[in-house]
């Protein structure tokens, strides 16, 4: 049997289980951070320091009764949460975790990412429509409008990175950021506007505050998953947290050097024997996880700090401000690449 196939299957198994575990860790982290922000204890009953609370929540989802509306489309109602989880897990296959360590090293990785994220809107829309509830339908329609509005700006922000790197491959995009001395090659330095646009659109794409209009508990009960219960509701919950975690990975990969260790060129000059070793790979993975942890914390911090936009504000921001800025940024980056090369700082 082909060893590369076995290695890919093993990596896929590990990444899927890591994503499942990460959702539990992020739930606990969000509860703890939100409790700190609101000056309250947070989970502290189930297990030491409340560490087992996320697992108690999973058990609750598994044991709760699965209730389906009598007039719903039962097949689509059941398919929608599965679609959301599958898409969320699939995008993780594109993440380079260290030099040469990636499940799907595709030459069109960026296009695959944009394609997968655009499909996720179907899961939300179908969930809202199939429930035969006006609250769920409004949540689904809001989500469709919101994602279309922000995917354009996200795509243009990604295009600006592709123009600088000259590649659609995520591994090559990361390696291109090692071209500059120390941290100057990172795209956050070369393309700060694109970085800010991508981070904002990542919040909108993952339906996190201040862009959680598809759910909007105070307005639409729970939005598109109002009529879901039991493990089906748990799958939407899982997909949201996995998407948030994966979004943090792609922010880091596209703009903050990915798995590159800060001052890596200098480090390899001082310790040349470290190149192409397992120690360097472990160091790169640790560097990646520390960067991702910061952005995961940022998602929590923003959620519990800023209020939700009104719907007209959300649409105005997407179409009147972010889209023109993202178009102008992509055009300026393209002009800069033509005139000055690949921004090799």
Overview of this structure, please?
With 345 residues, the protein is mostly helical. The protein has one domain. Helix content is 68%, strand content 0%. It contains 13 helices and no strands. Helix 8 (192-205) packs antiparallel against helix 10 (230-255). It is globular. The N and C termini lie far apart (45 Å).
- How far from one another are the termini? 45 Å
Q: What structural class do helix, strand and pairing data support?
A: mainly alpha
Order of helices and strands: HHHHHHHHHHHHH
> Strand share of the residues?
under 5%
* Total helical elements: 13
The best one-word shape is globular
Give the overall average pLDDT: 85
Main sheet summary = none
Low-confidence stretches: none
Overview in brief:
Helix content is 68%, strand content 0%. It is an all-alpha fold.
List keywords for this structure.
mainly alpha, 13 helices, globular
């Amino acid at each position: 049997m082909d060893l590369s196939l076995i290695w890919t299957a093993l990596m896929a198994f590990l990444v899927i289980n890591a994503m499942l575990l990460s959702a539990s860790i992020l739930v606990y982290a969000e509860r703890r951070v939100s409790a700190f922000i609101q000056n309250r204890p947070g989970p502290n009953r189930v297990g030491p320091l409340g560490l087992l609370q996320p697992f108690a929540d999973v058990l609750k989802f598994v044991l709760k009764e699965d209730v389906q509306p009598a007039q719903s489309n039962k097949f689509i109602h059941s398919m929608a949460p599965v679609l959301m989880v599958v898409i969320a897990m699939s995008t993780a296959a594109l993440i380079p975790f260290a030099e040469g360590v990636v499940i799907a090293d595709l030459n069109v990785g960026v296009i695959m990412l944009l394609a997968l994220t655009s499909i996720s809107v179907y899961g939300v829309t179908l969930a809202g429509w199939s429930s035969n509830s006006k609250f769920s339908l409004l949540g689904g329609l809001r989500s469709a409008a919101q994602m279309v509005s922000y995917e354009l700006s996200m795509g243009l922000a990604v295009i600006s990175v592709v123009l600088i790197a000259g590649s659609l491959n995520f591994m090559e995009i990361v390696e291109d950021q090692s071209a500059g001395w120390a941290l100057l090659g990172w795209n956050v330095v070369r393309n700060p506007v694109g970085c800010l646009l991508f981070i904002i659109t990542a919040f909108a794409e993952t339906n996190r505050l201040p862009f959680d209009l598809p759910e909007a508990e105070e307005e639409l009960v729970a939005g598109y998953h109002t009529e879901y219960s039991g493990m089906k509701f748990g799958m939407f919950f899982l997909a949201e947290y996995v998407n948030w975690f994966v979004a943090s990975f792609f922010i880091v990969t596209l703009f903050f050097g990915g798995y590159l260790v800060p001052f890596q060129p200098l480090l390899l000059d001082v310790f040349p024997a470290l190149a192409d070793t397992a120690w360097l790979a472990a160091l790169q993975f640790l560097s990646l996880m520390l960067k991702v942890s910061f952005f995961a914390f940022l998602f929590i911090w923003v959620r519990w700090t800023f209020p939700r936009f009104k719907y007209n504000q959300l649409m105005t921001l997407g179409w009147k401000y972010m889209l023109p800025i993202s178009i102008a940024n992509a055009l300026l980056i393209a002009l800069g690449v033509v005139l000055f090369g690949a921004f090799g700082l």
